[in-house]
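During the first year of the project, the team set up a workflow for recording each protein of interest as an amino acid sequence followed immediately by a discrete structure-token representation. This format lets reviewers and collaborators read both layers of information side by side without switching files. As required by the reporting guidelines, we include two representative entries from the current panel. The first entry is reproduced here exactly as it appears in our internal archive.
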Amino acid sequence: MGEIASRRILGLSKAMAKFATINRLNEKSATIGIVGLGYVGLPLLLRYCEVGYKVIGFDIDQSKVDSLLRGNSYIEHIPSQYIKDAVAKGFVPTTDFSRASEADALILCVPTPLDKHREPDLSFVLDTTDSLVSYLRPGQVVSLESTTYPGTTDEKLLPRIESHGLKAGHDIFLVYSPEREDPGNPVFNTRTIPKICGGYTKSCLEVGMALYGQVIDTVVPVSSTRAAELTKLLENIHRAVNIGLVNEMKIVADRMGIDIHEVIRAASTKPFGFEPYYPGPGLGGHCIPIDPFYLTWKAREYGVHTRFIELAGEINSSMPNYVISKVTHALNLQKKAINGSKILVMGIAYKKNVADMRESPAAMLMELLRERGALVSYSDPHVPVFPKMREHTFDLKSEPLTPATVSSYDLVLIATDHAKFDYSMILENASLIVDTRGVYLQSAPNVVKA
């Protein structure tokens, strides 16, 4: 057989594999495998079930699998009825990764934290990929959704996938499509949030677009997996830098005796050129406190020092200590010390109206208060029991919020401004309040703004 004929046959084989996969995805006859059943993976698999795909969910946590098999949700803003409906439609959760061979698409939604040196920890991504590679087969599409630095898909996943003889863009299709979940957002959800998709090759991108096109209203293609990876980092670094700016402005305004929240409200009346960001006790969630460090770490490989990003990170990281200084000052005004004071932390989730504790600054505030001898309790209607966390351990349950409870504490620290809190009652009964969220717009003798 001549070289030209061989190339033509190979090209035809490649095209047939691609079109066969795209057809299965478009016809919804494909089986979708979601790997990692947390805040990203669970809503995504529910969306695939909703439109009619068969879905297999993979997780190493047997307790999650057992909960889903019973039709129970372990994420507050996802009703258990959604899980029951998915199971009734054939959704199967499992810890058996050998079943990955049954899936036409495998979507990786696993954590990408930082290690103790504040450097990227890709162990969850790499261990997951290593657990899957021996079960991969021709015609599958593998999509990574975990936030990471540019080059991860090409440099880390690609060689692992191709080590078993599968050629990306020919036998198997590799894409990166960053998650954009916002837990508890009442306006946007998995279907309505536009999806970025980058492929290792043009064929990979075409398959990736088909993978998400049936479940997401708008899928936005980019030229490469690296462009998609950097897009996700830019989104979150944009927020981190602006939050760092407004946190620094808060300190300046406080020294000048100006309420930064009043200033933000006034600036927001400008109909162009200004977008409001709000200060707080620190950064929380899985993305914003972590993602900037992924880029600064990778940028060093290219000889670039990301000073602007790192400065914002330093400011945001310093906010818990700033809040503690305000707590100390507030107690001193009443001739009290932190040591021995009873302090009630209001809200310990990382943002309002959710139960998500990932990287919550409230947990760091509780640690700092405990280190200084405070008797720490908390109240959070979304977090009834303090969860197991990698870095913070408290054997506590949420305190009921009553006038008697509030008045029994030396200080109430508002760390997360849940809508369920009765702020008028708290104001009337607390002897001292430190407000990190701008809840109280008017001055009050028992309120210190932080």
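The second entry, processed by the same pipeline in the following quarter, appears below.
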Amino acid sequence: MKTLTWDSSYTWDDVNIRWGNPSYILEFGDPGYVGPPSTITTPKKGKRTMSNNPIPKNGKVVLAMAEDCYDGCMDHQDEVGLKQTRAPEFGALITALKGNSPTSPTPPGAPAPPPPLPPEPGLIYLYDESKVTTGAAIAALTAKDKEVSQFLSAARTVLVTQLGKAWSPEWVLAGFTDQGSTAVPKSDDDRFTSINTIAIYLSQHPQYEVPAGGPMQEVTYAKAQALHTQLSDARTAVNDAKRDQKAAKKARDAGYAALRRQLIAFVDELTLLLGPDDARWELFGLNVPSNPRAPEPATNLQLSLAGDNRAVAEWTRGTRSDNNRVLIQILGVDADYREYGKSGNSSEIVIKDLPPASTVKVKIIALNGSLEAPTGPEAQITLP
């Protein structure tokens, strides 16, 4: 033990202090000494496997998996005893993503169904539509910017006869704002500025105008002003389209995230209701945790061009698959299929570095861990 003084570094509530005259503190080996608490190590969290049913992050795969679970809920949710994650919850989230469509015609003699809801696009369609809109807006802007560039080139030809070929401050007033140069501006922002400036210049110098209808291209204040307005509108349309596309993507991704949370809750609830060897897991398109089987084959393989020497392969996920082997065969080069790679938990892949003008066959083999589907879809495409 050691005598305690006021300048000791111990705190008043130390369990080894004994107050008195004198006061002292117990040390290791003294009767009654209390050692420091043992360090508790929190084990690192491992990867959550969800009863051998990992929940993917890829949106398309999440949707395909959720549709399998929804189909199982429609037929077996009461039998299994599901309470929290049932078909209506899945249906609402799936409909939000995919939209709804009119119901099929009623068969003769069957009771009339309730009036169908009007068709309404889902978040996936709205995002895809926004990409098309953005592409069209960019194409329109590119075309209008080209028209502006042609006008500026024609105006330069006209103004050379008035201002001379050598650059001077007068050329800046005419819209050719690059210091020391009379060339048409190279950037689209500079051309946007130039077309407005030259419109003002021509309004102040109508004697330099070339009216429409003659052998030369029209170079007038009215034409320049119209082009400036049209280019401004085209630039605004692109900005608006990009903003809307970003918002549509955010909404779609939020829909996927909500559906993924529903899947996590669904597998958690099934884990409480079914044993690890219960065959009914497969009724919901899921693995039997203690005895996973090979997945169902992938389906609906589609190939499309994706730029120079590239092709995109897209397919429908095979039930219970968590990966895919992508096999390719270049006709006239490969004697048979060879492995290109694996897609991970995704139902699409870009195949790169293909020979120009070649015909390429692709085959997809769905995987469930080390287990392979017995077969898979095939398709071919010819590159330009």
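For the second entry, the following points were noted during internal review. Helices lie at 59-80, 87-98, 123-163, 169-173, 188-204, 221-273. The radius of gyration is 35 Å. Both points are flagged for discussion at the upcoming steering committee meeting.
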